[in-house]
Structures are given as structure tokens and as C-alpha cells.
Amino acid sequence: DAEITQSPRHKITETGRQVTLACHQTWNHNNMFWYRQDLGHGLRLIHYSYGVQDTNKGEVSDGYSVSRSNTEDLPLTLESAASSQTSVYFCASSVGNEQFFGPGTRLTVL
Amino acid sequence: AQSVSQHNHHVILSEAASLELGCNYSYGGTVNLFWYVQYPGQHLQLLLKYFSGDPLVKGIKGFEAEFIKSKFSFNLRKPSVQWSDTAEYFCAVKDTDKLIFGTGTRLQVFP
Q: How high is the pLDDT of residue B29?
């Protein structure tokens, strides 16, 4: 079955380190998204992509970057992790009007 | 840009009680609206969606939502909740190809 996966599922890192979260989908969807979920804020959009080589900033993009070298993957990089980036990160892909979400990555920055 | 407000942050109900969760979006025109559910420890799943047509939308697990254009609202309802409905519920509106989410409502259902 087609699916969307995220890895790692849990990550603990230290302030200042570079961290990359992986997102892989097998639906061949052009649109992919990264959100962070925080208590009291719901889900906020970090970056999104409408296809290979296309990336766009979302609402809370500072300190994050993405790259899209193929249709299946949209890795999210924290250039220099900060404690404020402790959160749960969800990747999603979409076709038409519906988004499908991955299982999430819980990131703790100490 | 669109925004979404969910006024109920935490709702506690007993089993068999009726549920209504509020959702308002910021401006009109053509809107695509969604309700997602997140069960404890799981990812978001689509409950229901509205694009056009009948403003009363039926979703999975007995949930429904009513689109009221004059009130900019898309409230979620269920006539009789179950313990298994304990989860966080998110309303979302589509803005171009992006989803704008509300802050979520945590529902706890006690037996």
C-alpha cells in the first residue's frame, strides 16, 4: 500500500547541532508539506513543495530548510537546533484537496 | 490570509453525551473546509471535508459538520460520543494548496 513515512520517530539532540528529519511518500504526490505541532498552536506550516526543485516558506520557516531532489522525499533540516524547536513534526503530502499525514517525529533539543 | 478559530480548547464529556465543537474561518468566498482527528500517539486522520453542495457533511465514525456561510462556521457534531472518541480535533481551511489549522480541541470522554 502507498504510504508516507517519517524517520526517526524520536530524536534527542543538543543545541547548535544540525538535524535532518526524513519524509518519504510512495503515492507520487507532487505536493509535500512540513508542519510542527505545539500545544496551544495546533499545526503550523514550516515549508512546502509543489514539485521537484520547488520549495516555499511557510508560517514558521526561520531556522529550517528543505530540499526536493525527487518526488518521494522532502527532508527537513534544522541548521542549528534551538530549544524552541522542540516539537512534534509532521510531514504531509497531497493530491487534489486532501492531505495525508505521516506518523510524526518527536524532536527534543536539550 | 485565511485563519481558523477553534473556541473550545478542552472539552470533557460523559459517554452518550452530544458533542459540538466550534470552528470559524476568517473570510468568505469559496472555501474548502476540513476536520481532522488525532488519536493519542497517532497521526492526523481526515474525519470529513466540505467543498461545495450540501452544507451538512457526514464523515466517518458518526461525525457530521454543518457549513454555515453567513456565520463563517463549520462546526463538528456527534449525537452520542464514545470513550474511543477521546482525541484532539483540528479544523482546517484550504488556502491555495496549503491547509491552515486551528489550534485544536482536546476531547476527553469518560465512561
A: 73
Cβ contacts (< 8 Å) between A103 and chain B: which residues? 42-43
Looking at residue B98, its pLDDT comes to 85
Looking at residue A15, its pLDDT comes to 97
Q: Is the dihedral of CA A19, A5, A67, A96 positive or negative?
A: negative
A102–B contact, CB cutoff 8 A: yes
Contact flag B99-A42 (C-beta cutoff 8 Å): no
* Beta-strand relationship, B45-50 and A105-109: unpaired
* Closest CA relative to residue A100, chosen from A49, A15, A29, A42: A29
Residue by residue, DSSP assigns B14-37 as: ETT--EEE--EES--SS--EEEEE
Q: Does A96 touch chain B (CB under 8 A)?
A: no
Cα A63 from Cα A80, distance rounded (Å):
7
C-alpha cell at B89: 480535533
In chain A, residues with a C-beta closer than 8 Å to the C-beta of B93 are none
Distance separating alpha carbons of residues B3 and A99, to the nearest angstrom: 18
- Asked if B59 is an interface residue toward chain A (Cβ–Cβ < 8 A), one would say no
pLDDT lower than 70: segments of chain A:
1-2
Low-confidence ranges of chain B (pLDDT < 50): none
